[in-house]
Amino acid sequence: MFSFFKKKPVVPETPPAAAPAPTPTAPPAAVPPVAAPPAAELQPGSQPISAPVPAAEPLLAVEEPAPRQSWISRLKAGLSKTSANLSILFVGAKIDDDLYDELEAALLMADAGVDATQYLLDALKRKVKEDKLLDAAAVKAALRTLMIDLLTPLQRPFELGRHQPLVMMISGVNGAGKTTTIGKLAKHMQSHGQSVLLAAGDTFRAAAREQLMVWGQRNNVTVISQASGDPAAVSFDAVQSGKARGIDVVMVDTAGRLPTQLHLMEELKKVKRVIGKGMEGAPHETLLVIDGNTGQNALAQVKAFDDALQLTGLVITKLDGTAKGGVLAAIARVRPVPVYFIGIGEKIEDLQPFVAADFVEALLG
Fold first, then answer.
1. Are the C-beta atoms of 146 and 124 separated by less than 8 Å?
2. 365 marked as binding residue
3. Is 179 annotated as a binding residue?
């Protein structure tokens, strides 16, 4: 889970007095200014690096760790539309064909997909028959167990410290929340003691570089960019700079694109090859950010990006307010790429590691 810590104010130490005396109190010592972090090193021929400028006021609130129950409550609220469509089916219901028909419709409406829906229904009918389940509550509990079993293979912890630096290539279509997710992931890495470097490789979308630089300021992280607009060159420079400076994690932002834009998908493949030239074995993580509202289109994105880049993980965003939370079941059946994180809002703490049991609890109510 995420870790957050409140910043404690700097208080000058006052030595204890030898004996009480009515002497006037001396003014507190001045606090020395905090030096700005050093600029990253560039390879020959690259453009200047945008170093972070510490803001006068903190741009991002740092909060205490949210209790696990608080996260589950927010997740339930985010998935309430999907949950309402599923949980209402079991209120006073009879165990008959009508219940199965309504459950099938609800799962399809939640974008679980035909394959996952049929799989769950067949397994549920077998379990009801074998265990001789007679009431709706028991059937709902059986469905909960089946869904947890289906989604658990997607649950995998994100491991830090495997490489120095750990290079992450992050992709996604426009509007999926890719750049915002990178900012949240950077804060997550920092909270676990990792130094982070960002590469502004999204040169296709207007103001994408500026948006990433804002997140760099918020997290006090250096952002490497080039005016030339060559994403492969930016990515290479970032990897080289990360190696030279002893950075723990290098995150490469790439241009958002539709999987049908074949020439742009080829450019993504080139970026990945160039990252590999910058460091053998890199990128160590190739992530796809998916908007949870896109339903079955999300599955098409996973297939296309996985075919092109061999994805190692997914981040599902914007699950709050959607009735399509069942898409994870479709992914589990058709293309079971691990889901590292899920997001239900704009706050830092609203991006959390995926836990199958928590997700199903929120989904079924």
1. yes
2. no
3. yes
Query: In this structure, is residue 96 part of a structural domain?
Result: no
Is pTM, for the whole model, over 0.85?
no
Dihedral sign (CA 289, 292, 294, 300): positive
User: Is there a binding annotation on residue 174?
Assistant: yes
Annotated binding residue 97:
no
- In single-letter form, the type of residue at position 147 comes to M
- How many distinct structural domains can be found in the chain? 1
Does residue 246 have a known ligand-binding role?
no
Whether residue 165 has a cis bond before it, omega within 30° of 0: yes
Q: Is 322 annotated as a binding residue?
A: no
Residue 19 annotated as binding site:
no
Q: Is residue 327 annotated as involved in ligand binding?
A: no
- Give residue-wise pLDDT tens across range 33-51: 434 333 333 333 333 344 3
Q: Which residues pair with 343 in a beta bridge?
A: 351
Q: Does 319 count as an annotated binding residue? A: yes
Which of 211, 213, 178 lies closest to 198, judged by CA?
213
Within-domain flag for 66: no
pLDDT one-digit tens code per residue, 331-347:
999 999 999 999 988 88
- Identify whether 117 is part of a domain: no
> Rounded to whole angstroms, how far apart are CA atoms 176 and 302?
13
Question: In a 3-state reduction of DSSP, which class is residue 80?
Answer: helix
**Residue 261's domain is classified under what CATH number?**
3.40.50.300
Is residue 244 domain-resident? yes
Domain that holds residue 328: 154-364
